[in-house]
Amino acid sequence: EIVLTQSPGTLSLSPGERATLSCRASQSVSSSYLAWYQQKPGQAPSLLIYATSNRATGIPDRFSGSGSGTDFTLTISRLEPEDFAVYYCQQYGSSLLFTFGPGTKVDIK
Amino acid sequence: EVQLVQSGAVVKNPGESLKISCKAAGYSFTSYWIGWVRQMPGKGLEWMGIIHPGDSDTRYSPSFQGQVTISVDKSISTAYLQWSRLKASDTAMYYCARLGIQGGSYFIDYWGQGTVVTVSS
Questions:
Q1: CA of B17 to nearest chain A CA: how many angstroms apart?
Q2: With CB atoms 3.0 to 4.6 Å apart as the test, which of A24, A92, B45, B77 could cross-link to A33 if both were Cys?
Q3: pLDDT score for A52
């Protein structure tokens, strides 16, 4: 089973700053199978990025994803107040088994 | 508009049984896999398992195999997650989620609003 590690655990930044979130896999992951989700307090998660770098419908272009193999990155170019949330990476494995990373909390500095 | 509407919060005693639901609307229910995700208080997301409403093909995460049962009633476009004997450690938020597939990529494109399950004596 592939294990995902996210870093940092918490990222304290100010609005307007750039956020760089890392997701590392214990084994190589197909770029088609890596997604990112955002979860705000009291809400269900929502899809941000699929297949490593494809923005979901309605996601602003300040969000971007990149990476390959075992190292993937979510970048928020300029943080807006509504972007302070927890972000999870997820990979799809065989037999429709999915794995989530532990999450990175982006909070206001 | 795609919607996944889950049943309301419940409080149960340890050892009791429970079945929570997720009613789908706005798309062809039998064409998309539906999964369940657990989120324990203050913790991250855990994948529990998934079912295809068309043929009830079900896959469980090893951590949840034998602990829960996932089922569907396609006549009413509803998926279920059930426990035969609840434990305090089952206290969590449970989300249902639709699996999107695009160009060979798999991801969750829609989520239910979540059901809070509290198990306490």
A1: 25
A2: A92
A3: 96
Residue appearing with tokens 């909070």: A107
* Res B42 pLDDT > 90: yes
Q: Which bin fits A48, alpha (ψ -120 to 50), beta or left (φ > 0)?
A: alpha
What's the full length of chain A, in residues?
109
Cβ atoms of B113 and A44 closer than 8 Å: yes
Q: Which amino acid is at B35?
A: G
Query: What is the tens place of the pLDDT at every residue in A38-56?
Result: 999 999 999 999 999 999 9
Q: How far is the C-alpha of A100 from the C-alpha of A4, rounded, in Å?
A: 7
Show which residues on chain A lie within 8 Å of chain B, measured between beta carbons: 1, 32-33, 35, 37, 39, 44-47, 50-51, 54, 56, 88, 90, 92, 95-103
- Taking 70 as the pLDDT cut, the residues of chain A under it are none
Q: What is the pLDDT of residue B112?
A: 98
Chain B from 102 to 121: CB within 8 A of any A CB: 102-109, 111-114
